[in-house]
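Feature request, filed as a ticket because there's no other form

It would be nice if the structure record came with a short human-readable summary line next to the tokens. Right now we just get the raw output. Example of a typical job, pasted below so the devs can see what we mean:
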Amino acid sequence: MTKKQDFSLVLTIVDAGFSENVIEASKKAGASGATIINGRGTSQSEENSFMGVSIQPEKDIVMILVKKAIRKKVMKSIAQDCELEKQGKGILVCLPVDDSIGVSHLADK
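Raw output as currently delivered:
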């Protein structure tokens, strides 16, 4: 295990295709990269049907590991640039990271 670092995981869930906007906003605020996972939404307000078949919208989940010191700056940049305050634009949360391995490149910055 590496020594304990003060990191946070910024998670953003947006409609598929909008992950690049999230990444650009996060890099502008000092983040160095991201991981994107594809998923499906299950919100009742977004669920549609076609010929009786339920259609769940595709989502991008953007995971960004940042130093705790810049997490609020990164979140603010993403929220503003991606208009996340508007209903239906996405979800943005931040989680604490207790331990990490393989992120020495972040510790040096």
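Something like this underneath would help us a lot:
Helices lie at 19-28, 71-81, 104-107.
The longest strand covers residues 58-67.
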